[in-house]
Amino acid sequence: MRRAVAPLLAVTVAMVLADSAVVTLALPDILRHLDTTVTGVAWVLISFNLVLALVAVPTALGFSRARPQLLSAVGIAVFAASSALCAVAPSIGVLIGARCVQAVGGALALVGCLELLVALYGERRGLATWVTAGVIGTATGPVAGGLLTEAISWQAIFVVQVPVAVLAVPAALAVPDVPLPPPDRHRPALRPNLTLALLSAALTAALFLLVLLLVDGWQRSPATAAITVSVVPLAALAARPIARLFRPPHAVEVAVGCFLVAGGLVGLALLPSAHLAWTVAPQALVGLGLGLTVDQLTSQAMHLRLPRVEHAGWTIGARHLGVVVGLAILTPVFTADLQDAQVPAQEAITALVLDAPLPAQDKVELARSLGDALVDQQGQVPDLHDAFAATTFAPDDQAAADQLEADLGEQLERAATRAFRDSFLVGAGLAVLALLTVVAPPWRRRP
């Protein structure tokens, strides 16, 4: 029973938490396919995290009145059904509504799987499995979403979740003898949950904004972006073995992790060029910080506190509220910076076109096509390839046109990199705030 059921429950935990960011690389495709706005497509990401943050604690309270196996199975079934609805959503409104329902089912599944894993593995190992699965899911969500979007479609992100969830429903019901939570109650652990929320807000810059920079700013494919950001989950997995070598105190480990996340985000803010290799070291720092902090903070927030599911709900709520706050803070910053960068970028494009060794008639035709592209894609980093494809160049001038297109691409990449700089620095500031909550003196004296 334990060998067959427990891994499936752990995969379910990872899958639900991966959904907080799994659609990040699919957002441009969703925008085009459902013919919506940038604000509308952003709510595909925001709605799941917001609803999960709001319902995590209330759903956990329900586990004191019903069998954990039943509520877990219901939550997983709701998650499966809403995932299927997401895959066939005909409009952005239906997709956002399905994501909200998906979050409710996910909340039930998350807190329920904790109780079931503890029943199968015991307190210590069950909690560790639940926490580790959550960290892996959070870190690998964008990677999985990007690969599925590139290989199949954005709908495949939700389709693949359905069979896993369907298999997990009978697995949850098959777990025997899960006692109801004890009546004892402890207050939520304020400091680790606050640190977890601030750190989650900071990690949003790495897990969300970096993906946008790669896909929308540097015009990389979703698959290329997914492979690039795989550095974060790989580094997160390496963090625990490294920590075991040095055996630092828990507070020191969390403080170092917050510092690494802040340093990695500063590194992303100061990228010298749009070459993907420059992102590897900063991502590694962020991944190491993620691996050193999230599991430790979750364990601290739940240590010796009853009922266990209620405090698990608080940690889930803190993490996803942090994601929403991070999106709310960072999105206006980078959109405003993109807007501010538009005029200098247009001036640079004009200068490059005027200086290009092309006939005047070709320059006029190309300038008209480029102007239309800039107007149509206002508020985002434009893709100028179609403008060049719509312009007919003489064979002798094609090499000069190709060089001009490459120069314009480099100019736009530099502009996009600068436009995201302030957002990454704000994310680093959030990580520093998380660090301050760790190193601050005790908020009250123990009796």
TrEMBL record:
| Superkingdom per UniProt | Bacteria
For this protein's source organism, the top of the classification is: Bacteria, Bacillati, Actinomycetota, Actinomycetes, Propionibacteriales
Q: Where in the cell is it found?
A: Cell membrane
What positions does the domain Major facilitator superfamily (MFS) profile occupy?
5-446
Which Gene3D superfamilies does the protein's record reference?
Multidrug resistance protein D
Task: Classify the protein's membrane topology as the record does.
Answer: Multi-pass membrane protein
* InterPro entries referenced in this protein's UniProt entry, alphabetically: MFS, MFS_dom, MFS_trans_sf
Q: Which Pfam families match?
A: MFS_1
Record's signal peptide: none
Sorted alphabetically, the keyword list is: Membrane, Transmembrane, Transmembrane helix
Looking at the UniProt entry, the stretches that span the membrane are 42-63, 70-96, 102-120, 127-148, 154-175, 196-215, 221-239, 251-270, 424-443
What name does this protein carry?
MFS transporter
